[in-house]
Write a structure and sequence with these properties.
This protein is mostly beta strands. The protein is built from 6 helices and 35 strands. The protein has one domain: Beta Barrel (Maltoporin, Chain A).
Amino acid sequence: MSTARFRTSPAPQLGVLGAAILFVANPAHADDAADIAPVVIASRRLEDAVQRLQSTGSATVARIDRERLVNGVGGPSGPLSGALTAFRGLQVRTVGGLSLRGQRDSVEVRIADVALPDGAAGLADLVTSRFAESVDLVTGALPARFGPNGSSVLLITPRQPPYEPGGDVEIYGGGEGAFRVGGEASGVVDGTDYFLTADGSVDQRGVDGPTPADRPVHDRSSSARVFSYVNWTFDANTRVAFMAGVTKATKQAPTAAGGQPGLGLQAYDTTAYPSERLQNSQVEDLNFADVSWLYSAGRLDLQTSLYYRGARTTFRPDLLGDLLYSGLGQIDSRIDIAVGLQSDAVWRLSQSHSLGAGIALKTESSQSATRSLVLRLDANGRVINNKPAFISDYLHVSGHTMGGYLSDNWKIADWAALDLGVRYDVAIRDTHTRAISPRVGLTLSLDPTFRVRAGFSHGFNPPPMQRVSRRSVSTFFNTTATSFSLRNDPPLPEESDQIDAAFDWAVSPRVNITVDAYRKTAKNLLDEGQFAAPLATVPFNFAKGRSVGADAQIAWRDGPFSTWFGVSVRRVRGERIVSSEYNFSTAVLNYLSRHWIDLDGGERADAAAGASWRTEKTALSAEATYGSGAIASKKTPNDSALPQRWRIDVSAVRGLDLPAPLGAIDLRLDVKNVLDQVNALRDGTGLTLGGRQYGPRREVYLGLLRSF
């Protein structure tokens, strides 16, 4: 993929699943697609239908366009999550997924307007930057079609077909022993657009380490990923799209050298255990498939999708070491399977008025099996003997979520548009909960360059089922793994009310400014914490929550040069923990029953600035990020913050057209954390986020991409 083209090609062979979909879709239409021009026109028309279906109404939209996706640090073949750091207020974590505006697991992810099930962080990594035409972060007062959360959604828009035939192969590496090899292929066969990408990688720094060292102890990771997308345009009114992906990742849990157990335990005549000997790792398998049918004729746009998601996580512990350090060594295996249906429709009453309706159904099955190594205690809390015992636990549960909505989008006048809607959502899990969620938004175009938006939304956010801990707390009573509390109430869906106000100002054809302010109040505010050795988080609820903040961004573009600056400030607070109580001490639970505290999922402020310059053969970019410091504890829970953090990343790409057999080649140089800053991400004193963790130091990467 030469820089001169700045394209992201996509796969020659469709594979068994793709061929099956095309066969079911009636391949007889293939002969009718001999003339590609009508197919192109139909495809563009159907893309317009998708845009109408996912209209964002009065919400705030921040966009990363294709140029920034392809030319930013990491390039077009890296996981899409690497590009998301450009969004203010959004953090991508090595453990726990996405965090937005200081609250974890609050972002709905959609690809081609298909909502992905829980576990979106892993599913989003199925997609590389080369596949996306753009990525939009939608916040504020969301229309009723987005839900049930109601506060934020990440829209990944695929490149518009027809796909240019060809592909590329890339080798990329450097940094902390990182190496990645992968490629893509794409094209059109009888009116069918296809895209395939595959890659594998290894890295000596998979999870942010507990020390500021360049290369943490025992922190190797490896991953492999395959993703395919097939788009069959039947005629001017109908399209079937199929996407599927598989990922497999192995992550080691990093350790700090020089430590020894501090609990004074003895197991199998062993008391000493150097921390550098700890060998914990986690294997994560994820597979996903979706088939969507899009129909657009006359005034009707309709899309229906069926999806499947399977996930398996296996934690492989250092049983003896974990027992001596924490009183518990635990083998943990979880399997989660979800199937669902989503259907959305828009009926255009006129050019300025449309009605929408839709439903979403999901059923989920989760199995967990654990074998826990502990030491038995007597009634006085003393170890009975130094021979550990195993406690086995197996649980199989299922749950269902159902939702539907009605919406009304009406452009009252040239200068005013109104969005009205209501959702009804039901979650049947450990408890049976439901909610009616009204949504309203108003947009005023005071002049051609200035828009004001305001709205209200009610949200209903069930906790991700595969992360809910159903630990049998009582079985660990009188062992070294005895919990702080015997209570383990199941996490409940969060219900929230949010008001939002924003404006967009096109200062000139080159300069745009966006400012968005919001206030949110919540019942059963959801949060997540990493409380044990597995590289996973557990959801819990605060009885009440409050959030207030603002985001602002200014962007300037002039021909080949562009620059932008964004800032986000917020404060998210909660009071009284009402689920998963066994993770917290009695003192903490008593304190939180009377006091509000800051959530430690993010920072109170962050900012970023970037610039890029592009010619036909060369692309240069730089990005600087700043954070006010993660929440920490001194005297009471979450009453302090860590030092400020910042880093600078730069990237350079040069396209070369070499004689055969070399052909078109892109050379890439990426330097992350140019000034080698030491950035503490957490210090182990926060309420929910485990031990110390530091961001990566200076890393230099080189890449070579060969197009064909």
